Amino acid sequence: MEQRTQLKKDIGLFIATALVAGNIMGSGIFMLPATLAQKSGPGASMIAWILTGLGSIFLALSFANLGSKIPKTGGPYEYSKVAFGDFVGFMNAWLYWNGSWIGNAAVVIAVASYVGSLFPVISENHLAGFVFTSAVLWIFTIINILGVRVAGKVQTAITAFEIVLLLFFVIAAAVHFNVANITPLFPAGKGTETISAAAASTLWAFLGLESASIAAGEIKNPEKNVKRSTILGILISTFMYFAINFFAMGAMPQDKLANSKAPIADILSGYFGSGMATVITVGAIISILGTTIGWLLSTARLAYAAGEDAIFPEIFAKVHPKFKTPYMSLIIGSILVNVMLLMNYTKSLNAAFNFVTLLATLSYLPVYAMTAASDVLLHIQGVKKLNLWSFIKSSFVPLLGFIYAAWTIYGSGAETVMYGCLMMLAGIPFYLYMNFKNKMKNHSLLDEKKIA
């Protein structure tokens, strides 16, 4: 079925770039320096960032390239459908959509975690935490329903604020950088053997690199701006991640960094006083709220595209008559997030966050791998004489992206891979049902035409 153009093209290059950078730079950018210090030494951490950054750039180039060739809302669903057919397209849509709404629960929980440091009742009282996260979820769902331009402008302003705040941290930490804090680079027990563990932690930080391709149907001049915004967004995010983590390691001894619950706030508090911790916490809350807007937007767009093609129920394709947004996709996704929050509200915020990030990450990895594979296939279709050398030469970058995605799947551990397989298997009955339903509908239409 050809996708109908119903969504309003209201996103320019600047907002699209902010969408990519803002979706990538969420809660992880404020917590990862401490997480990595617990798992690995300075040398292994930076190697992990380089590997993850390069791998993410290769994947982003595939999304950018495919987004310019197939500028439709739905991104990885559309690419894999064109390259490999309806079933692989459905599986990408199924995994990405489930990973997205589950990941939205993680982002909202992260907001509550930071707010809880200012208002302990949100962290200590499970019911209060559930009410707060539900309120945040539905406020930003409504903002997204009101229009992509409204949501985009809010996120753009928040992303700009976040970058300014983090650049301030980089400059302050660089001024106080102490080489002694990063030596030895590879301490005993935290040497090169910990690179894969560190890389697994950095992977969550780069989820969102596909955001512009997901919303391609609402981006002005998508043939050019999807590619530009994806590349600009990933470059900005990679630079910020690398700079923040490098200077954080040099600004605080590794043992203290590993035990810090708010590393950026703790480092700046040492320079500017305890009041700075509150400023950074508020800044983190504002930044994660911006991520919430962007991820709600992306989640709904892929479900909308799948609904348009009737591989998801058609209710997902309903567009608001006034605001021209996929409001039913937004509402259904947020209802599921609310159910996830309800299921986890008896847990601590940290335990809930760790659980949902595991579920979300394992859903994205196969989607990234299949997007890179789709780019490989579409690259080699134009090669007249194919041999091993021409195959590698024509699709070198997407092949590197595919290898990186496969490596991260392997490095994510047996438990993650098991959950990923279960998630994929759960989608098969759903696909069979929708496929059979569509065939019955087509037969009914043919019979009606014959009678007429």
Provide a quick synopsis of the model.
The protein has one domain: Up-down Bundle (Amino acid/polyamine transporter I).
Order of helices and strands: HHHHHHHHHHHHHHHHHHH
Q: Tell me the distance between the termini.
A: 23 Å
Uncertain ranges: 1-5
Main sheet characteristics:
none
Number of strands: 0
Please name the fourth-level CATH homologous superfamily. Amino acid/polyamine transporter I
In the CATH scheme, what's the topology name? Amino acid/polyamine transporter I
What share of the residues lie within helices? over 70%
Query: Structural class given helices, strands, pairing?
Result: mainly alpha
Descriptive account of the structure:
There is one protein chain. The chain has 452 residues and is an all-alpha fold. It has a single domain (13-451), classed as Amino acid/polyamine transporter I (Up-down Bundle). Helix content is 78%, strand content 0%. It has 19 helices and no strands. The protein has helices at residues 13-24, 28-39, 42-69, 76-84, 86-118, 121-124, 126-145, 148-175, 195-206, 211-214, 222-251, 254-258, 263-272, 275-308, 327-344, 349-380, 388-394, 396-411, 414-451. Helix 2 packs antiparallel against helix 9 and helix 13 (263-272) runs antiparallel to helix 14. The longest helix is centred in the C-terminal third of the chain and has 38 residues, at 414-451.
